[in-house]
Every structure is written in structure tokens, then in C-alpha cells.
Design brief:
Length: about 280
């Protein structure tokens, strides 16, 4: 609420509301340039053209999600939402204490892990905000997924060797790394991308569907984890590592880089893949 006083309406919203001068002023502020700058004028023209193209069409229906130009970016958004949950992150938060104790970790070690997980998640998410427009969304996703898979390997090693001198330390390091790698990429990026890759006319509906799939995947993984943990024991997190590595391949092959690109540029790139 305190920071809300500094928020501004987007230039696209001003265009849709017919406030062209306000749209130009907002663009000038966001681009840190003059109102007559070519960048501002060109971007404003693109926004006005997009607004004219979509005006009068009414709200999108579900069938629009299955057609170009929404289908391909929706597949990307939904897949990333599923991968976010199938990374095992919420199981690490929700069940780590029970799971680690069941696999031989002491009370002090489990408490330390719980504290460091939450503190690390907050701090690393702040770092991801700084890196988002420097390293790029795609780079952060890849780094995050590969890093989480590596941390899963460390945790599995610790769980397979209870009672060793390094077990407690390795458990602490691996879980904190797991959460930190999540917070730098796979945590924030799947929530950011839908707003960048969806067409304006279906963005709200498509983003809602992607968010719903995220919660559904969360429910499925949460219900399945205790069964998986009781079956696989110390190897309970290895299926998540498989999903993470498969997700890294998906990002490498399919997910576009959106850093520094206008929505229109992103849409043109995506339409070339949607056949």
C-alpha cells in the first residue's frame, strides 16, 4: 500500500482508454527520454495500432486459447507452470522437516535448514529482480533448473549416507542451494512470462488458465509426495531432478528470450513457431 502511491497506469491502458497524451507521457517517463523521441513515437504508434485491431472484439473465449496466436505461448506458459511445481519446491518447504527427520537428520539440523530456506528464498528473489533484465529470463531459467537438479543430487547423496560426518552439513547446503536456485529463476519467471508472450486480446484469460494449472500441479505433487517418499526413501527427490533436467531442455529448445524486446517483437517471433 505504501509503494502503491508510486505506481502508474501502463501506456497500453491509456491507449485503450483513449488517453493518448497520457500514454505518451508515461512512455517518456519509462524510457527516460523526450516525448518527441523516435523510440517513444514508434512504440506509441505500435500500441495504438494494436489497440485499434483488438477494440470492439469483446472478451476472449476459451476456444481462442486453442488457436493462433495464443496456442503456442500458452503451451510455453502452462509447461513452465507445471515444471515449477514438479521441481519439488513446495515439497521442500512443506515436508522437509518430516522427510529429513525420517531419513536420519537431527532436530537442530532440520530447524537450521527450515530457517535458512526461508531467509535464502527472500534474499535470492531480490537478486533475481536485479538480474532479470541483465541475464535474461531464459538464462535465469536454465541456470535455475540445472542448479536445482545439482542440489537434488547433493541432497540424495546426504540422505543415502546417514550418520556420516558430512551428512548434516551436506543436507543443509543442498536444501539451501535448492531453494536459492529456485528463487533466482524458476520461481519468478513463469509468473512473469505470460504477460510478455500472450497476445493482448487473450492475455487475461490465458494467464488465468496458466495460473490455474499451476495450482492444480501443486495439488497433484503435494498429494503424491508422501507416497513417493515412503516408496523411494532417500531417492524421493530424484524424480524432481528428472523433471528439472527435462525442463532445461524445454527452455533451451522452446522458450524465447524476451529481455529488451517489445511485446510486438515477441509476438512476431512466436507466430513463426505456431503452425
Amino acid at each position: 500500500l505504501i509503494l502503491g502511491a508510486g505506481l502508474i497506469e501502463s501506456p497500453r491502458w491509456h491507449c485503450m482508454a483513449g488517453n493518448i497524451d497520457e500514454a505518451q507521457n508515461t512512455l517518456t517517463l519509462l524510457r527516460a527520454t523526450d516525448p518527441a523521441d523516435d523510440i517513444v513515437i514508434e512504440e506509441l504508434d505500435v500500441m495504438l495500432t494494436a489497440t485499434e485491431r483488438t477494440s470492439g472484439k469483446g472478451g476472449a473465449d476459451m476456444s481462442a486459447l486453442l488457436r493462433s496466436p495464443t496456442r503456442y505461448p500458452l503451451i510455453i506458459a502452462v509447461t513452465l507452470m507445471v515444471l515449477q511445481q514438479f521441481s519439488g519446491i513446495n515439497n521442500a518447504f512443506n515436508y522437509s522437516s518430516v522427510f529429513l527427520k525420517a531419513n536420519g537428520m537431527g532436530e537442530e539440523t532440520v530447524t537450521l535448514i527450515a530457517i535458512l530456506m526461508n531467509v535464502g528464498n527472500v534474499l535470492i528473489t531480490g537478486l533475481s529482480v536485479y538480474l532479470m533484465d541483465r541475464a535474461g529470463r531464459r538464462g535465469l531459467l536454465l541456470f535455475s533448473m540445472v542448479g536445482m537438479a545439482f542440489a537434488t543430487g547433493l541432497l540424495t547423496t546426504a540422505l543415502r549416507n546417514p550418520g556420516e560426518t558430512y551428512t548434516s552439513s551436506l543436507s543443509v547446503v543442498s536444501v539451501v542451494l535448492f531453494v536459492s536456485f529456485f528463487g533466482i529463476g524458476l520461481g519468478p519467471v513463469p509468473w512473469l512470462l505470460p504477460a510478455e508472450i500472450m497476445p493482448s486480446e487473450t492475455r487475461a484469460l490465458a494467464s488465468s488458465v496458466a495460473a490455474s494449472i499451476n495450482w492444480l500441479a501443486n495439488f497433484v505433487v503435494g498429494q503424491a509426495f508422501l507416497v513417493v517418499a515412503s516408496t523411494l526413501g532417500p531417492y524421493a527427490f530424484t524424480p524432481f531432478a528428472v523433471f528439472l533436467l527435462a525442463g532445461a531442455v524445454f527452455v533451451l529448445q522452446v522458450v524465447p528470450e524476451t529481455k529488451g524486446k517489445s511485446l510486438e517483437q515477441i509476438q512476431r517471433e512466436l507466430q513463426g513457431h505456431d503452425h
